[in-house]
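user: can you give me the structure for this one chain? tokens are fine.
assistant: on it. calling the predictor now.
[tool input]
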Amino acid sequence: MTKDSKTRANHREVEVLEALRQLGGAARNANLAELLGVSEETIRRTTKALAKADLVRRVHGGSYLPESGAGDGVFSRLGLRQGEKGRIGAAVVALIPDGSCVFLDVGSTTAFVAQALNARRGLDVVTNSLNAAQALAEQGGNRVFVAGGRLRRDQLGMFGADTIDFVQGFHIDVAIMSVDAIDAQRGFLLNGADEAGVARAAIRQADRAFVVADHEKFGQKAPLVICPPQEIDVVVTDQPLEPAMAKSFDDWGIATHDTSHEPDKFNDKDAA
């Protein structure tokens, strides 16, 4: 690398760091590229160099500043178990016909579902997730309805009474939700009242309810029950169920899709 090219690279790194600060400490590659007038590939190369210097953290489709606090929320979780979540997303999309009305919540796994939904056409997608909306905006084959309400920066999503009212205005064919824990006795659990309120509203409006969860969610604990477990129709996960969990799902009438034998849908070149 010549001295001039090193200077340009250093200048670009400074620009990206400043852009991240302007955008609240976290951003998708597409947002950074648009703001700086460069390609997403340039952003990926720059954030990779910044990550090596421990100045940013890279996640699927974006990056964040370590000091920003974004690492405590959904944005950092996008960087965890990407292969598993990519397979889950692809499996979910295979169950959804073109023309459906679909709800997506703010979870990190549902962000991968949103990306996979770009393979479908004619969908109406209702979401309170800014990550999901951004992923769906990359293609023009579907209509996207983004809920208003109170923005929670840690979740990059909208919450509150206005969000619930918005969701209740739709007849949803399939509601797709993530959870914080799955228990063989209590069912599907969340830590936050905001998230639970939106999930319950979506389930009420939906003909079918799907839960997407990687294996780490099974056997965990969380205080809020989303709904009676019998109201969930399908669970898509990345590993076979333990016998006790499988029995509970059978008792509740829940179909399970295990993606452990499916090819990895995540390509590392698409990471931040």
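assistant: here you go. Residues 3-69 form a domain with the Arc Repressor Mutant, subunit A fold (CATH 1.10.10.10). The two ends are 23 Å apart (CA to CA).
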